[in-house]
């Protein structure tokens, strides 16, 4: 192979390396966005139709964030609440919320908040009619970190409830 | 000869591949830039290469968007009413715990710098999607805002329905959010989240041109 061709091949490889480097640079900054709370499980339940059944619903709070517990210590704070809309074939007979953890903001150590962080479990007592019900329950919450708060939000909690 | 032709074809193929890759990369970056430009109307929390979060507001250095909102007495208050003054437009909410920490600082700083032509507009941004058409919910919100403002001794104008101007102010996806508007109506600084009284004071001085 001639020297010219070798040089040409080297140039081509060098060019490719430069192009690949450009791609890395564009990915070096990322935007901090994501769900504050996610529903984890169960996705499907089989229950005895017409009979009250206790279900443990597992949620996960994004790292660094907290949401108010169901019983926040300030009247203005928005409590976390779980609900099932009417007419879906599954009734919510009762809900038991976990006790919140004490949390203080570094800038206000005297004031204790009651929050959920990491994972939390809501105990729901449901009564399902006979049949397969793909329900979209709701979790309403308001999340913050140590210096910012996000607007209140309602996320869907999709569960396939089979009443037998 | 045959071998040289083969090598030449291979090199040309490599060149063609890189040319295509270069074009694809250019198109990708162009589209990414367009996406970024489209998002530029919204403030964004980004992390730099060192992992440090930084709030980037599209409004910094630009004229503050005009608005006219009701105060707690139902009177319209416009940003334009404060022409010639240095104004801190502070977006807050009744449910925002960090807002409750910074509000007493704002009350003190407003008293301290009012004589120099400084004012604060506390714009309540409840983010609950409640509009005037839902009178019961609207009145409930208004009552909570009034109660909260009274509890925190907010002596400066408290305006409601900040949600209606959220898009103009970069989305207001996080609270508290403060826009420091100088006497010419230009946003000179933007603070997202709870910082410190000293930080806020520094930006007030900057806004006043001190």
β-strand percent of chain B reads 15-25%
- The level of helicity of chain B is 40-55%
**Ends distance of chain B:** 79 Å
What is the percentage of strand-forming residues of chain A?
Answer: over 45%
**CATH homology-level superfamily of the largest domain in chain B:** Glutaredoxin
Helix content of chain A: 10-25%
Roughly how many Å is the radius of gyration of chain B?
25 Å
Order of strands in the sheet with most strands of chain B: 7-6-5-8-9
Structural class of chain B: alpha/beta
Largest interface: A-B, 37 and 44 residues
State the name of the first-level CATH class of the largest domain in chain B: Alpha Beta
Secondary-structure element sequence of chain A? HEEEEEEEEEEEEE
Largest sheet of chain B: 5 strands, mixed
Going by CATH, the architecture of the largest domain in chain B would be: 3-Layer(aba) Sandwich
Mean pLDDT of chain B: 89
* Tally of alpha and pi helices of chain A: 1
Written account of the structure:
- By secondary structure, chain A is mainly β.
- Chain A has one domain: Thiol:disulfide interchange protein DsbD, N-terminal domain (Immunoglobulin-like, Sandwich).
- In chain A, 15% of the residues lie in helices and 49% in strands.
- In chain A, a hairpin with a 2-residue loop joins strand 8 (101-105) and strand 9 (108-116).
- The longest helix of chain A is centred in the first third of the chain and has 24 residues, at 3-26.
- The radius of gyration of chain A is 25 Å and the shape is globular.
- The termini of chain A are far apart.
- Chain B is α/β, with parallel strands linked by helices.
- Chain B folds into 2 domains: 2-39; 60-208, Glutaredoxin (3-Layer(aba) Sandwich).
- Chain B contains 4 helices and 9 strands.
- Chain B has helices at 2-39, 97-113, 135-151, 197-208; strands at residues 44-47, 53-56, 68-70, 76-78, 86-92, 118-124, 158-159, 177-181, 187-192.
- A 5-stranded mixed β-sheet of chain B has the order 7-6-5-8-9. Chain B has a two-stranded antiparallel ribbon with strand order 1-2.
- The model of chain B has no long low-confidence stretch (mean pLDDT 89).
- The interface between A and B is large, with 37 and 44 residues.
- Strand 1 of chain A pairs antiparallel with strand 1 of chain B, so a sheet runs across the interface.
């Amino acid at each position: 192979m001639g020297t010219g061709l070798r040089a040409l091949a080297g140039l081509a490889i060098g060019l490719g390396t430069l192009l690949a480097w450009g791609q890395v640079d564009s990915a070096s900054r990322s935007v901090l966005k994501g769900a504050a709370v996610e529903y984890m499980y169960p996705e499907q339940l089989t229950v005895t139709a017409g009979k009250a059944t206790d279900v443990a619903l597992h949620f996960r709070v994004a790292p660094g964030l907290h949401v108010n517990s169901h019983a926040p210590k300030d009247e203005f704070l928005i409590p976390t609440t779980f609900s099932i809309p009417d007419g879906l074939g599954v009734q919510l007979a009762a809900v038991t919320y976990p006790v919140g953890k004490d949390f203080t903001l570094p800038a206000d150590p005297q004031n204790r908040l009651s929050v959920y962080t990491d994972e939390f479990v809501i105990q729901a007592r449901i009564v399902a009619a006979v049949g397969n019900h793909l329900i979209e329950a709701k979790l309403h919450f308001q999340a913050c970190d140590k210096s910012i708060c996000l607007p209140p939000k309602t996320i869907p909690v999709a569960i396939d409830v089979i009443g037998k | 000869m045959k071998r040289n032709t083969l090598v030449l074809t291979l090199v040309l193929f490599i060149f063609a591949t890189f040319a295509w890759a270069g074009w694809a990369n250019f198109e990708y970056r162009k589209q990414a830039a367009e996406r970024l430009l489209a998002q530029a109307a919204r403030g964004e929390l980004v992390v730099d290469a060192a992992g440090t979060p930084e709030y980037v507001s599209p409004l910094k250095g630009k004229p503050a968007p005009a608005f006219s909102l009701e105060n707690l007495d139902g009177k319209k208050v416009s940003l334009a009413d404060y022409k010639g003054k240095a104004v801190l437009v502070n977006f807050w909410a009744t449910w925002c715990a960090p807002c409750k920490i910074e509000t007493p600082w704002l009350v003190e700083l407003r008293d301290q710098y009012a004589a120099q032509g400084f004012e604060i507009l506390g714009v309540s941004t409840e983010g609950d999607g409640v509009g005037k058409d839902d009178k019961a919910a609207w009145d409930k919100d208004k009552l909570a805002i009034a109660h909260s403002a009274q509890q925190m001794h907010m002596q400066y104008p408290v305006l409601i329905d900040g949600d209606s101007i959220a898009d103009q102010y970069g989305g207001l996806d996080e609270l508290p959010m403060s826009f420091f508007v100088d006497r010419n109506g230009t946003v000179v600084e933007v603070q997202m989240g709870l910082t410190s009284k000293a930080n806020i004071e520094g930006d007030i001085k900057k806004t006043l041109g001190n």
